[in-house]
Amino acid sequence: MLLITLYAIQPKMAPVPLTLSSQPTNNSPSLQYQTVLSKCGLLCDTSVQQTPGKFFKQREVATNCDSLFGDTLFPSTGHCQPNAPKEIPHFMLQDYTLNGAIKTQRRYFDQTYHGGEAKQSVWTWDMIETQKQQCLNGSLHGTYGTHETRALLDGLRHAPTLTGGRVLVIGSERPWVEACALAAGAASVVTLEYGRIISQHPNISAVTPGEFKQRFVENSLGVFDSIVTFSSVEHSGLGRYGDALNPWADVLEVARARCVARPGGSLVIGVMYGTDTLVWNAHRIYGNKRWPYLTTNWNHHYLGRGYQRVHVFTNKVVN
Description:
Helices cover 25% and strands 22% of the residues. The chain has helices spanning 27-40, 65-68, 93-96, 125-137, 146-157, 176-183, 209-217, 249-259, 291-294; strands spanning 16-17, 103-107, 117-123, 166-170, 188-192, 196-199, 204-207, 224-230, 261-270, 277-281, 283-285, 298-303, 310-315.
């Protein structure tokens, strides 16, 4: 599933070493995962050669958007367990860690969230316009504080196709990212989020993952000039929010975004930045090892700032 994760603030806790599951629960999930890998193709292939890049190495592979939006890679159910899994399934361990190249730590959450309404389900015109002005004057706290909001706005201003464009925001329960996109010059914003949102602002609308998929299949979704996501994809596929376990869910999510971005369109992405680490099941921290996979088929454009470092990319044409 295209995981739209939440902007929940969690208390800072020191991670502890992670004990990994040594045995698969049964053969069925393992076989299902092999089907996922077969559909994922080169996106999930660690043997693909990487080339030098401006910030870190880059990957370029052929992709099939119909497959990325198909039922195998875009399932309608979550992990289907009573609680978020505490252990990494044995048969997924190598893919979660890129064959052991990424270290693991433990920080466990069980915050199942599927459907229903978003925490802030009605976005009024006044709410959006107030936050838009706060973003412009540097006083918008957002979810992570004014420093991170300023870093996001800086990245948005460096996105070459955002001004006057149609923007897709991935994973937003509160409209601070959308307000900043409008402040940076976006003409309209579509928010993709698990929870249902009613927007009373004429330049913002919202869709659920199911609606997003259906519109893509029906060829009625249209294309976007810019994709924006902040502190969302690093949670994808870890089961924390009830989502299906998938080591490649973050990569698939960004790949789907590229399917709906116009050629040359921009990607503004902020994720936790540092030494590559899988903190199970809280989040990923991205470094030189994971970044090339996350931004497969995107050109480096601008390296911004912030604790959750904001990068800007442009959509390359891949033969």
